[in-house]
Amino acid sequence: MSIAIQPRENYLNTTTGVLSWLLTKDHKRIALLYLITVTVMFFLGGVAITIVRLNLMTPDSGLVSADTYNKLFTMHGVIMVFFFLVPVVPTVLGNFCLPLMIGAKDLAFPRLNLASWYLFVLGAVWALYAMLAGGLDTGWTFYTPYTTSSSHSNVIPALIGIVIVGFSSILTGLNFIVTVHRLRAPGLTWWRLPIFVWTIYATSFIFLLATPTVAMALILEIVERLWGIGIFDPALGGDPLLFQHLFWFYSHPAVYIMILPGMGIVSEVIPCFSRKNLYGYTFVALSSFGIASLSFLVWAHHMFVAGISLYAAMIFSLLSYLVAVPSAIKVFNWTATLYKGSISFEAPMLYALGFVCLFTAGGLTGLFLACLGMDMHVHDTYFVIAHFHFIMVGGMVMAYMSGLHYWWPKITGRMYSEWWSKLSALIIFIGFFLTFLPQFIVGYAGMPRRYNHYPPEFQVWNVMSSAGASILGVGYVLPLCYLILSLWYGKPAGPNPWGATGLEWQTPSPPPTENFATTPVVVRGPYEYHVEKAQNEL
Amino acid sequence: MFAQQIIWFPSQASTTASRVDLLLYMLTTICGAVGLSVAVTLIYFAVRYRRRSNTPTPAEMRGNRPLELFWTITPMFIFIGFFVAGAIVYFDAYRAPDDATVVYVVGKQWMWKFQHPEGQREINELHVPVGQPFKLMLTSEDVIHSFFVPAFRVHMDVLPGRYSSVWFQPIRPGHYHLFCSQYCGTNHAGMVGTVHVMEPAEYERWLHLNAEGSMALEGRKVFLKYRCISCHSADENARAPVLEDLYLRPVHLRDGSTVIADDDYIRESVYDPGKKIVLGWDNLMPTYKGQVSPEEINQLIAYLKSLHRGETPNRVEEFAPPAATPPINSK
């Protein structure tokens, strides 16, 4: 990497050459490998949805054929869910920051960490090959019996790719759990852990417990498709709802795999930029585990009109409302953290505040969908699409951007352009609203998802949504530009540009390979901004 | 109500529609108020406590147990209220009234096929009168589809290999969209149709214009065509159970269990007869999978519903096959 003069040896310049990166066991370099990989995946998924949104500008099937359209939205969903949203924060920011935040030299199993990346790349290349050569038209949900008996596309290779990437998740989760248990610095008790560590830790448990279920379900699909063994297809004596149960038993907790680390990021950023300790630390930490546990008990709320029994639907509706409580607690605590703070508005904070707004909107519309009588109407319409994009894009991606901007100076040792970064935060926020608000309306009006042509009365909302998406697209390309430019032109960041309290800020930026010259000793909780400030003033 | 004036709302064309919309208004009002207050508080704090040159170091503030308990427990009660309201609407939408007219629906890639009890058959169009409850028995020939009529606010997945049901009572004449909302392959977006809600008199006229043999009569033809009568003959030579007065009655099986002879059971007994053997009978019947179509199954069910004591046709050894079943009434 031709980054301008580095003043001293750090993890970026300690060894050079392609092999020193491809065989590295340094968690920070592996995080960068992941960063490049998932960024490529994000933009590929973005290209697919760009064509979909262009196609939806007109009510007729216009731009691409029905088959191509189906392959494009499948590609968007598969890439974004399995190869971006699920891995991005744990593998990029978690990988980079977790050892630094707990005062460790590396993760517990550095080799396993590198193996996870290779598995990820293998799975990604495999699935991408399947989706680009021939295509996959099942939707990212792989419902049976369509996937096993009816689809003529590249189902088996794509499923294998996703199973492989699942192993990468499992190994990463295992690595993180052991690291948090075994490698905390002296004095770093559980109640002094930063919330980001708590959420990564809770997420790792979901990785371990839920991923095997989806791997199993997908392997069963492969078995049925390959050898005609009746598991899900009623024509062969199987049960199509069994697949939905197995799939959502993973894929609902997976929503929390995506959002929990995002909540962790925001819990770091908001205290830092309001110079206050996180309000209700214990509640926020425990609610992560409340969410992680309850997330396993709500899967059938994706199946209210799928043909489950009346009483099953009622139980799952009630449980779905309960899982909303810990999320509500977090929103109130973030807001209360601002109270009587000293708030500044650098890019990470703008993204974090954007996250709180959009996540709240997404969470509140989730209450609509958990309501049985409402779901009966809006199920599988654009209302659902809008809701989960508020959570996953408005929530999760905003939080990721916040974290990326927050830790970028630590990762690269460089500051990015303040003006451009604030502008892009604003553009993403506005573009997001314009894209997804109209989808709530067109969804309630009855437009089903995965339609490449639709009745003309829905056109106005689709045009608005596509226009918003083009603004959103600009918002995502801008950071790619100014963050890369900052590698050459950014001014040196110094060890702690935000005046933050976390351990990761007590080592130089970029950190040396061994992270800390001497293992730090922790004497306080994670967000003691009043103490830090008092000491600086002394 | 007033929402119809706003163009993006589908009309309230069923008894359920206004109840679902009421849920929407309730949720939007409460959630909107909460969401707005969070946003306003956030913005107010952000402006009020922005860092100025003379801002002092903020004091430590760890939290406030009673306040946190308050904002944990209050949402819980509000949520339980939402749950109850939604469950009530869902509960009523789940159970059809006993006097509902039953229409059988078969979904396949990529069309909807309807069979009325009086025998009218339609593709991608469904005619129903105002004021009468309709119960649809839904099944699929291939993959999962979903029956969705936004104007009725009802939605139900259509599965292969089993029946699901949905009911509605139209209240407003008009022509409404019918969508398949569960992704089902290439032409998923083309699996659409129209529900025509008509005034009762107009509907009667439509029924007469399109009358064919009733579903039960068609079912009797199917029953004879496949020679079901050879074994289910209700006489001393019978080699299979009597089917008179069977529908919705308990059936005792050889393994000691009891099932109710509902649509799913009858369908299974044709396609997979060895699975549940009636007490006192042998496992003789071959499968009719691939021979009897889902629509013929529906006609058989209609026939069995109407088959009462002593009404089984006479068994005739030399049975001339009836004329081929009429083709689907294509428009």
Structure description:
The complex is a heterodimer of chains A (538) and B (331). Chain A has helices spanning 18-22, 27-55, 66-101, 110-132, 146-150, 155-182, 195-227, 240-274, 281-294, 310-338, 347-370, 372-378, 382-412, 418-444, 459-489, 529-537. Chain A is mainly alpha-helical and 538 residues long. Chain A has a single domain (24-537), classed as Cytochrome c oxidase-like, subunit I domain (Cytochrome C Oxidase, Chain A), CATH 1.20.210. Residues 1-6 of chain A have low confidence and may be disordered. By secondary structure, chain B is of the alpha+beta class. Chain B folds into 2 domains: 1-40 and 66-212, Immunoglobulin-like (Sandwich), CATH 2.60.40; 215-306, Cytochrome Bc1 Complex, Chain D, domain 2 (Orthogonal Bundle). Chain B has helices at residues 15-48, 65-94, 200-209, 215-225, 263-271, 294-306; strands at 101-108, 111-115, 121-123, 125-129, 134-140, 145-149, 154-158, 164-168, 174-180, 192-198, 250-252, 258-260. In chain B, the strands form 3 sheets. In chain B, strands 3-2-1-5-8 form a 5-stranded mixed β-sheet, covered by helices on one side. In chain B, strand 1 (101-108) and strand 2 (111-115) form a beta hairpin. The relative contact order of chain B is 0.12.
Structure, briefly:
Chain A has 16 helices and no strands. Chain A has 538 residues and is an all-alpha fold.
Secondary structure topology:
The complex is a heterodimer of chains A (538) and B (331).
Chain A: H1 18-22, H2 27-55, H3 66-101, H4 110-132, H5 146-150, H6 155-182, H7 195-227, H8 240-274, H9 281-294, H10 310-338, H11 347-370, H12 372-378, H13 382-412, H14 418-444, H15 459-489, H16 529-537
Helix pairs in contact in A: 2-3, 2-4, 2-15, 3-4, 3-6, 3-7, 3-8, 3-13, 4-6, 6-7, 7-8, 7-9, 8-10, 8-11, 8-13, 9-10, 10-11, 11-13, 11-14, 13-14, 14-15
Chain B: H1 15-48, H2 65-94, E1 101-108, E2 111-115, E3 121-123, E4 125-129, E5 134-140, E6 145-149, E7 154-158, E8 164-168, E9 174-180, E10 192-198, H3 200-209, H4 215-225, E11 250-252, E12 258-260, H5 263-271, H6 294-306
Parallel strand pairs in B: 1-5, 4-10
Antiparallel strand pairs in B: 1-2, 2-3, 5-8, 6-7, 6-9, 9-10, 11-12
